[in-house]
């Protein structure tokens, strides 16, 4: 895909994560609501995910979606979490 080095950011929106993973933003929001991905609520349907929490999620995904997370291009994961 040709990802460049991303400036280091500490926080991500669910939409930004979803865009990079090529999945619907509602999927990421559901991960948050399930308690699988730690996030801080910014307003009604907006969450803020810290990069360390996103990294922990990718390193230790929940069992029900472990195969799905493992199928994500490692280059995309590195781009998001460094």
**C-alpha Rg (nearest Å):** 12 Å
Low-confidence stretches: none
Indicate the overall shape: globular
SS class: alpha+beta
Order of helices and strands: EHHEEHHH
Largest sheet: 3 strands, antiparallel
Number of separate strands: 3
Brief descriptors of the model:
49% helix, three-stranded antiparallel sheet, 3 strands, Helix-turn-helix domain-containing protein, alpha+beta, 82 residues, Multidrug-efflux Transporter Regulator, Chain: A, Domain 2, globular
Describe this structure in words.
With 82 residues, the chain is α+β, with helices and mostly antiparallel strands. It has one domain: Multidrug-efflux Transporter Regulator, Chain: A, Domain 2. It has 5 helices and 3 strands, in the order E-H-H-E-E-H-H-H. It has a 3-stranded antiparallel β-sheet. The longest helix has 10 residues, at 25-34. The model has no long low-confidence stretch (mean pLDDT 87). It comes from Nostoc minutum NIES-26. This is Helix-turn-helix domain-containing protein.
